[in-house]
């Protein structure tokens, strides 16, 4: 059984940072031209569940094996994220090389949030406000 079904992620660290939004969602993760130590794929798509978290300090998407995205609003790498909508899903496209020197390619996270458009608005507002 996955960690978020047993007890959910430990939110104490995020609460200390000023938790603004937390939602456990389902969706997919797509790897395109992905290369990293121990894994490579020209294209792969997997079903996943994760927790989307917004704090006053950062934007985080926690997966079952750790964070898929974990970027402070003030980090210059935040600008490399392409965050938008794909239909009713929140879409986060990550250029992996911006976050890891030994990896390349692209990761696309599609999350079925309760209100993806409102969440996207919150992300954009926080990015402008904090940057």
User: Low-confidence segments, ≥5 residues, pLDDT <50?
Assistant: 1-5
Q: Give the neighbour order of strands across the main sheet.
A: 4-3-2-1-7-6-5
The secondary-structure class comes to: alpha+beta
Which CATH class? Answer: Mainly Beta
Q: How large is the radius of gyration?
A: 14 Å
Assembly category: single chain
Cα(first) to Cα(last) distance is: 39 Å
Strand content: over 45%
Protein name: PH domain-containing protein
Organism: Pseudonocardia sulfidoxydans NBRC 16205
Keywords:
disordered N terminus; PH domain-containing protein; PH-domain like; alpha+beta
Describe what this molecule looks like in 3D.
There is one protein chain. The protein is α+β, with helices and mostly antiparallel strands and 131 residues long. The chain has one domain (17-130): PH-domain like. Helix content is 18%, strand content 53%. It has a seven-stranded antiparallel sheet with strand order 4-3-2-1-7-6-5. A hairpin with an 8-residue loop joins strand 6 and strand 7. The N and C termini lie far apart (39 Å).
Give a brief description.
With 131 residues, the chain is of the alpha+beta class. The chain has 3 helices and 7 strands; from the N terminus they run H-H-E-E-E-E-E-E-E-H.
């Amino acid at each position: 059984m996955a960690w978020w079904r047993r007890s959910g992620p430990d939110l104490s660290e995020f609460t200390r940072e000023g938790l603004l939004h937390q939602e456990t969602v389902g969706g997919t993760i797509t790897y395109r031209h992905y290369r990293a130590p121990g894994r490579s794929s020209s294209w792969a798509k997997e079903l996943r569940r994760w927790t989307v978290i917004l704090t006053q300090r950062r934007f985080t998407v926690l997966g079952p094996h750790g964070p898929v995205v974990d970027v402070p609003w003030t980090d210059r790498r935040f600008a490399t994220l392409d965050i938008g909508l794909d239909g009713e899903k929140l879409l986060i496209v990550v250029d992996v090389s911006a976050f890891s020197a030994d990896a390349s390619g692209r990761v696309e996270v599609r999350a079925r949030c309760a209100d993806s458009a409102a969440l996207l608005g919150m992300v954009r507002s926080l990015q402008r406000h904090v940057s």
